[in-house]
């Protein structure tokens, strides 16, 4: 009887701890869309996530005269259930290959359904992966990526029900090499009771005084 009770308790414990949102993009996925202003030549647009398991763009093959901004956009994902369950942190997990030059960047953005705008989801990536190729970018050595947490605790009902996200590449208006993303996964998480701060800096202002600044992890002000 004790063994049966233990199994039942473990089962319900797993249910309680389960993530409300754990949603792979499942590329190729025709519910995704590709947007932006970019060279559509197959040599440049190396992998279309609506028809392949990756999203890749070769800016070098697009040509130096081509200014390219391309995004792989998810369908609308209603995240209200995660919000209601207290899982107010969202994350994106994927793998990527990137040959970075100077002004080009890759990253993640989310949709604000109230404002009708795309917003940064963390800082853009502007650094090479390990020995990146100069062609066929999905053949390179990929690096795992987990986004910064996106705190949806202050989202309105419209922002929750109209949520979507996208992965992007921009060449910054000049010639670049290129990149490849693998199929991402969106997850939700209950934030810790006292989240860590980031970006802590201290600047001396006198013999015994200093200005301290940080990026809040939660609602703290001191």
- Percentage of residues in helical conformation: 10-25%
Distance between the termini: 52 Å
Order of helices and strands: HEEEHEHEEEEEHEEEEE
Cα-atom Rg, whole angstroms?
Answer: 21 Å
Number of helices: 4
What is the 3D form? Answer: globular
What is the subunit organization of this protein? single chain
Biggest sheet overview: 7 strands, antiparallel
Let me know the number of strands.
14
Mean pLDDT metric: 90
User: How much of the sequence is in beta strands?
Assistant: 25-35%
| Classification by helices and strands | mainly beta
Which residue ranges are poorly predicted, with pLDDT under 50 across at least 5 consecutive positions?
A: 1-17
């Amino acid at each position: 009887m004790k063994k049966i009770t233990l199994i039942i308790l473990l089962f319900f414990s797993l249910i309680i701890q389960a993530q409300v949102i754990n949603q792979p993009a499942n590329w190729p996925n025709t519910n995704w869309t590709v947007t932006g202003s970019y060279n559509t030549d197959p040599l440049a647009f190396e992998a279309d996530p609506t028809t392949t398991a990756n999203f890749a763009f070769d800016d070098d093959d697009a040509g130096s005269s081509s200014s390219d901004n391309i995004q792989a956009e998810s369908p609308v994902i209603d995240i209200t259930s995660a919000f209601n369950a207290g899982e107010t942190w969202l994350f994106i997990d994927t793998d990527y290959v990137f040959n970075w030059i100077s002004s080009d960047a890759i990253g993640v953005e989310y949709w604000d359904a109230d404002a009708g705008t795309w917003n940064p989801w963390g800082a853009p990536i502007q650094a090479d992966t390990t020995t990146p190729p100069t062609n066929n970018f999905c053949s390179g050595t990929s690096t795992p990526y987990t986004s910064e947490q996106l705190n949806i605790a202050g989202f309105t009902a419209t922002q929750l029900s109209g949520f979507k996200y996208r992965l992007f590449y921009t060449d910054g208006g000049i010639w670049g090499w290129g990149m490849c993303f693998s199929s991402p996964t969106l997850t939700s998480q209950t934030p810790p009771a006292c989240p860590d701060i980031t970006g802590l800096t201290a600047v001396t202002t006198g013999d015994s005084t200093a200005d301290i600044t940080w990026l809040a992890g939660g609602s703290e002000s001191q």
